[in-house]
């Protein structure tokens, strides 16, 4: 094998390992996330052009919560009265988010989580893709 072939294989393996590192993904979960689209296994995908509410995730030491918030024009948020309790676990080299409410419990697998994008897949095969929310800035 040539030097360029070995270099290419090494580069590809480094890129693929970094993308799915559950520890790195966990560090990127906290913050405000705006849904972009949902892919269903049934072919009924949905794109979101405008979101009235966004998700806020806060996880410390593998436990935390997710809640919906309403962004306001002054840069603040109105919190909803509901929170989903979240436990983050690394299982089979994947980051799993286990949610719990008084009415239900479910698990999502994190496919991607970085500074700008979040993508999770639930038990029904639906993939939710988010982008980092940017506050409205009316002072500029």
Which structural traits does this protein have?
Lipocalin-like; signal; 10 strands; 140 residues; single chain; Lipocalin-like domain-containing protein; Lipocalin; 47% strand
Give an overview of the whole structure.
The protein is an alpha+beta fold. It has one domain (22-132): Lipocalin. Helix content is 16%, strand content 47%. The protein has helices at 3-19, 22-27, and strands at residues 31-39, 46-47, 54-60, 63-71, 77-79, 84-91, 94-100, 105-113, 117-122, 127-132. Strands 1-3-4-6-7-8-9-10 form an 8-stranded antiparallel beta barrel. The longest helix has 17 residues, at 3-19. The N and C termini lie far apart (56 Å).
For this structure, the quaternary state is single chain
- CATH-derived topology: Lipocalin
Number of helices: 2
Task: Compute the separation of the termini in Å.
Answer: 56 Å
Q: What overall form do the CA principal axes indicate?
A: globular
Total strand count, please?
10
How are the strands of the largest sheet arranged?
1-3-4-6-7-8-9-10
Structural class: alpha+beta
Low-confidence runs: 7-18
- Give, in order, the helices and strands: HHEEEEEEEEEE
Radius of gyration over all CA atoms, rounded: 18 Å
Largest sheet: 8 strands, antiparallel, barrel
> At CATH's second level, what is the architecture?
Beta Barrel
Average pLDDT works out at 87
Work out the helicity level.
10-25%
Beta-strand content bin: over 45%
Q: How many structural domains does the protein architecture include?
A: 1
Per CATH, the class reads: Mainly Beta
Protein name: Lipocalin-like domain-containing protein
InterPro entries: Lipocalin-like (IPR024311)
Signal peptide: 1-18
Pfam families: Lipocalin_4
């Amino acid at each position: 094998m040539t030097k360029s072939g070995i270099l290419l294989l090494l580069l590809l393996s480094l890129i693929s390992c970094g993308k799915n590192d559950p520890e790195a993904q966990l560090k990127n979960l906290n913050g405000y996330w705006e849904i972009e689209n949902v892919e269903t296994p049934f072919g009924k995908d949905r794109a979101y052009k405008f979101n009235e509410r966004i998700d806020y995730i806060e996880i410390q030491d593998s436990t935390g919560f997710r809640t919906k918030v309403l962004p306001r024009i002054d840069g603040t948020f109105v919190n909803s009265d509901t929170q989903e309790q979240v436990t983050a676990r690394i299982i089979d080299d994947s980051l799993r988010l286990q949610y719990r409410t008084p009415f239900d419990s479910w698990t999502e697998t994190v496919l991607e989580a970085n500074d700008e994008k979040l993508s999770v897949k639930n038990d029904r095969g639906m993939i939710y893709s988010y982008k980092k929310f940017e506050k409205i800035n009316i002072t500029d």
